[in-house]
Design brief:
- The complex is a heterodimer.
- Chain A contains twelve helices and 15 strands.
- Chain A is α+β, with helices and mostly antiparallel strands.
- Chain A has four domains: 2-83, Beta-Lactamase (2-Layer Sandwich); 115-216, PAS domain (Beta-Lactamase), CATH 3.30.450; 221-291, Helix Hairpins, CATH 1.10.287.130; 300-443, Histidine kinase-like ATPase, C-terminal domain (Heat Shock Protein 90, 2-Layer Sandwich).
- In chain A, the strands form four sheets. Chain A has a five-stranded antiparallel sheet with strand order 5-4-8-7-6, sandwiched between helices. In chain A, strands 10-12-13-15-14 form a five-stranded mixed sheet.
- Chain B has a seven-stranded mixed sheet, with helices on both faces.
- Classes of the chains: A alpha+beta, B alpha/beta.
Chain lengths: 444, 265
Amino acid sequence: MLNWLGYTELNLLDSRFSTLLPKGGQMHFEMFFFPMLKVDGIVKELSYDILRKDKTPLSVLLNANTILDQNGNIRAINVVVTDVTERRNYEKELLKAKNLAENEQKRLEFMADLAPEMIWTASSTGRISYVNARFCRYFDCEEKETRTLFVLSKVHKEDLKHLLRSWYKSQSTGMELNETIRLINRDGNYEWHRVKAALFVEKNGDQTNWFGSCTNVEEHVRQLKKKDDFINIASHELKTPITSLKAVLQLMQRMKAETSERMSGLIDKANHSVSRVTEMVDDLLNASQMNEGQLKLNKKIFNVFDMIGACVHHLRLENNYQISTIGDENICVTADEGRIEQVVNNFITNAIKYAPQSQLITINVVAIPGFVRVEVIDKGDGIQPDKIPYLFDRYYQVNSAGSKYSGLGLGLFICAEIIRQHGGQIGAESKINEGSLFWFTLPL
Amino acid sequence: MQQSVLIRNNVNITGDGKEVILFAHGFGCDQNAWQFVVDAFIDDYKVILFDYTGSGQSDINQYISAKYSTLDGYVQDVLEICEALDLRDVIFIGHSVSSMIGVLAANLKPEYFSKLVLVGPSARYLNDGDYIGGFEKDDLENLFEFMDSNYLGWSSTMAPAIMGNADRPALGGFLTESFCSTDPKVARDFARVTFFSDNRADLSKLKIPSLTLQCAEDIIAPNSVGKYVHQHAPGNEIVMLNATGHCPHISEPEETIRAIKAFIN
């Protein structure tokens, strides 16, 4: 002990032990070591720095116990001092690492709290382990309340099954989760959220966690709904005067024998325009109905080949194209004939519109297992391959910039919706300078 | 409410007397610190012991960092115990930081208290201009380091402290066995509240008689701070004890009992 500290026996005899400690240590000694020794009779493994004669610190552990006389008074105190310099350095490093890790965590949590999204993490089995401040604010809860069941109770019951199915799928495949669901807020109102979650694999690979976010898209959904409402209203508003205009024109047409030929041509043109406007407005109406899932199908059995024949007959009257229908003449399906006619019509008029140089348009009816497949084939310019995936999107037009074609870009979207609601598929294939093939299937 | 406060603060009541003595422990340990002096009072007084929320056997779950981030939270503990037991004219005996908690409580509700005994009081531990509190900021940081390293402890206790939940590290075995065992986070908070508080301005507002027990060679509350309390608290008496260190009720219980009895009788 004397060697460790550099003192001689005379230096130390009769002085208090605590005077060997730095001031903070002396305080600790007074507040902990001494009361513990006196009350408990034993002190185990308290860590101190003792100052050597040259004032450099020596890291030690103190173990002490009291030896009592017959009256229970302390006769002596037995102290074991252990040099733990090495261990202390090790501890300091660990403490530093721990503080570093804690700081890093605090930084991440600060960032997570700053983000406008709700952010959470969960174990690989789905136990929620962390949620950010926005999460707690939205649901008006404490972080420790947020068990998985609590969160599921906040999901709209119509969305719950769907969410759970996706969640299980993501868990079993490790694929990202992407869902749009309604979550109830602190005021009891549901708001739409886009939920994203991805699996994070730690560096050593044996621990995985889910990191997730919920973005509030309520405003976005509300705006979309607003827009749909607007379209709905606008198309109705448009349709009313057009209908009366059409009636007037029909009346005039009946009277056209009484007027000049020039007048008659004007009336034909006016009639044509009105038909065109009517088509567009119908498209708008259809689109907004489909968006709300209000499309009503009047299904009955009909012969596909015959239906196409009637369609083509009607179109031939207006255009000088050669349209040839080939394939199986005996296939019957149960579907809404009017709506399917609309799809065929749309395919053919598209071919006429976008492939004017193609003189021949072929319609092919074939039976495939469980389905009938209808193809409309032209020999026009074809469509850029990168544009094909978007053809059936709403408001999409192949040549949107400086287009010479009119229309709302709703036709194929409506077709896709009609076919989808019948349980069929729709698609297109095309080769530049060779032509395009649009097809759909209907279940038999 | 009443019952919950008594459970929260592990309130223990003994003694046959009518007049009430409320013993309040200082920073670091718990009500067991009074075990050498309590017996001297139970024949003539009703003696009440308690642990501050977060200390000793109190209900740690009710420790709210924000509430106990100033001495006021601890003052609330004292006042709520008085209210729960419907106490009046209490003789409050507080050690170390509890001296100032007692002063603050008595300033808020003077009717609850008849006398204060301040054992090793300090109204401010840090030096401040002409005021000698006895400590520079570095000394205190040094103490906090000692506390941290002792909670980090020896290899056997280090692992749980580091690996465990950062909010509630497992206590090292050596401290859980002791009456000084405290949740490390609570201890750290309590130490900061204690040693960074400045209650000099509160002394002059004291309206009830008080006694300062000043130890010899007390590194935590040296003579100068005891004298400061004596000079600035109206109606304060001071007794200079022969006991050395900061815990006369532990090191020299007889002398401490004599001094207290002389004041309260």
